[in-house]
Design goal:
The complex is a heterodimer of chains A (about 325) and B (about 240). By secondary structure, chain A is an alpha/beta fold. Chain A has two domains: about 180 residues, 3-Layer(aba) Sandwich (Rossmann fold), CATH 3.40.50.620; about 120 residues, TPP-binding domain (Rossmann fold, 3-Layer(aba) Sandwich). Chain A is built from eight helices and 17 strands. In chain A, helix 3 packs across helix 4 and helix 5 packs parallel to helix 8. With about 240 residues, chain B is of the alpha/beta class. In chain B, about 30% of the residues lie in helices and about 30% in strands. Chain B is built from six helices and 15 strands. In chain B, strands 11-10-9-12-8-1-6-7-13 form a nine-stranded mixed β-sheet, sandwiched between helices. In chain B, helix 2 crosses helix 5 and helix 3 packs across helix 4. Chain B is globular, with a radius of gyration of 21 Å. Classes of the chains: A alpha/beta (about 325), B alpha/beta (about 240). Strand 9 of chain A pairs antiparallel with strand 14 of chain B.
Chain lengths: ~325, ~240
């Protein structure tokens, strides 16, 4: 018996959300005596980087070092993970929620005849059956969900457990798999990647701007603060709808859902749809010149004031802290 | 060309979420139900494709009789006919099985739906349907064009997008900006009343997961306001009190 964790990587590094999933797998294994924690990585990646996955709690890393798996072809990844799952005799698969994680998990649930729970926010409770707590209604509620199958897939939401990098390097085992060409019929022709930025869904701090920023030309104020904080930048739906900022920065019910330690909202009134995208944040700071903005009700800290005055001062104050 | 769009029947995005019966049931009292916002994008793009390619467009929902007004709205927006699988949509695997069973009978070229429902947010049904039918599934799709039997798509990935090509048949989980939401016009609303809405029995009853209880998040305390001329105080609080810096 073992717990298998699907690892995603980008630009030569294992994603932080995947390391969190490994820590989740480790905590689950300890709590339920579920055996070894095995991480599986697909495509070209440095072995040293993979060994580091051990620090997050993996006992072993299986590396399918196949160039064809470099690109995230959903079917091919699902097929590869299914093979590793079966060969390793696992009973639980853990992965981080992401555009790739979701897509792979769904196909795996069917391939493995497994029960799947998405948006998991805590470790399973086995005091009476096997129950998992998950976030629903875009963070507005939780559902205790009983899982009625032997094989289980848990798609874990960010911050479900703390990332612990206190383990030791894990042995990396290279495995060759024969993935049928039929799994590669979807072709990724090109990728546009925002480079040099903190990825929003994975950011530990997020600074977002709304219509109160008055125009895209003022975004340097948001970016300056974000840079000092090491934060990702986001925006409200109106801002991405008018085209001030790219769509992938839209935070909210129908955009990116973030779960950072700190969320700073500037010039965003706090419509319920925006709050749905940020309500898993640990700490929320709202800066708005309208003291009546509904966002203040959802905030931990607030400043009533003009963004154009407050932001430069705040950036300086953060700089002074260092 | 035959297109199937899967529609969820979900509380309006502004709804206050509450539960009844000892936190075992969703409280529908005062809640307005809508077509899932992501499904609405899928439907809007499907209507455009229908007009462009002369396709037929069917909408499907897995749900009890109360979801029919939502299906009628989809018909008013431009679908030709509707199917309701008469069952409570207990989990994503169950819903996917129902859709796959209907799809097997009808051989759709393109199956579209939202990237996720906004009630349970699983984002899994499209992938499951793809696997059940042995065809590709792509999500979240923000652009979808059809040229012959080739589907050209853009898919959102963390911090960017990916351009892909695949052949039909295919399942796509959609999101903005794939198309603009369409508002039904009067002619659409009138014609929707008489368009066919077929009710079918579910295939199989196996339930892999089941919600036992619901919970609301703990109430947020009151906001601590810091004077705008003393932002250093905010930084101190974030460092020493909230411990997030």
């Amino acid at each position: 018996m073992s717990v298998l964790v699907y690892i995603e990587h980008a630009e030569g590094s294992v994603k932080k959300t995947s390391l969190e999933a490994v820590s989740y797998g480790k905590a689950l294994s300890e709590k339920l005596s579920a055996g070894e924690v095995i991480a599986v990585a697909l495509g070209r990646l440095d072995s040293g980087e993979l060994a580091n996955v051990g620090q997050a709690g993996a006992d072993k890393v299986i590396h399918v070092d196949d160039e064809k798996l470099n690109a995230g072809v959903i079917q091919a990844h699902a097929e590869a993970v299914a093979k590793v799952y079966q060969q390793s005799g696992s009973s639980t698969l853990v992965l981080a929620k992401s555009s790739m994680g979701d897509a792979v998990a769904a196909r795996l649930a069917v391939k493995l005849g497994a029960a799947l729970v998405s948006n998991v926010v805590d470790l399973p409770d086995t005091s009476n059956g096997y129950k998992v707590k998950r976030s629903i209604y875009t963070g507005k509620a939780f559902a205790e969900t009983s899982v009625n199958k032997e094989h289980k897939i848990l798609a874990v939401k960010k911050n479900a457990v703390d990332l612990k990098m206190n383990g030791s390097a894990a042995p990396v085992e290279k495995v060759d798999l024969d993935i049928a060409p039929a799994n590669f019929v979807t072709e990724i022709t090109s990728t546009d990647k925002a480079t040099g930025e903190v990825l929003l869904p994975e950011a530990d701090i997020v600074v977002s701007g709304g219509r109160g920023m008055k125009g895209p030309e003022n975004w340097n104020l948001i970016e300056d603060l974000a840079k000092e904080l090491g934060a990702g930048t986001g925006c409200s739906k109106p801002v991405s709808d008018i085209g001030w900022r790219p769509h992938h920065e839209h935070v909210g019910q129908t955009g990116v859902k973030v779960a950072p330690s700190l969320y700073v909202a500037v010039g965003i009134s706090g419509a319920i749809q925006h709050l749905a995208g940020v309500n898993s944040s640990k700490c929320i700071v709202v800066i708005n010149k309208d003291a009546e903005a509904p966002f203040f009700k959802a905030a931990d800290y607030g400043i009533v004031g003009d963004a154009f005055e407050v932001l430069p001062k705040l950036t300086e104050a953060v700089k002074a802290l260092k | 060309m035959k297109i199937l769009v899967c529609i969820t029947h979900v509380p309006d995005t502004t709804s206050k979420i509450q539960f009844t019966d000892n936190n075992t049931k969703f409280d529908k009292n005062g809640v307005q139900f809508i077509i899932g916002p992501y499904d609405d994008y899928a439907l809007a793009r499907a209507v455009e494709l229908k007009e462009q390619l002369g396709a037929t467009l069917t909408v499907i929902n897995v749900g009890e009789a109360e979801t029919e007004p939502t299906l009628r709205k989809a018909l008013a927006i431009g679908a030709d006919d509707a199917i309701r699988v008469n069952a409570f949509p207990s989990d994503s695997l169950f819903v996917a099985k129902q859709i796959a069973a209907i799809a097997k009978e009808n051989n759709y070229d393109l199956i579209m739906m939202g990237r996720e429902s906004i009630d349970f947010n699983g984002g899994m049904v499209h992938g499951m349907v793809g696997e059940m039918l042995g065809i590709p599934s792509v999500s979240p799709v923000m652009k979808l064009e059809i040229e012959g039997d080739t589907v050209k798509m853009a898919r959102e990935i963390e911090g960017g997008k990916e351009h892909l090509e695949a052949k039909l048949p295919l399942v796509a989980g959609c999101q903005e900006p794939i198309a603009e939401w369409k508002i039904p016009n009067m002619r659409g609303i009138m014609s929707a009343r008489t368009k066919p809405l077929q009710v079918v029995d579910p295939a199989g009853e196996e339930i892999a997961t089941e919600v036992t209880t619901y919970q609301l998040p703990p109430a947020k305390g009151t906001v601590k306001l810091v004077d705008k001329d003393n932002v250093e105080e905010l930084v101190k609080l974030l460092k020493n009190e909230a411990k997030v810096l």
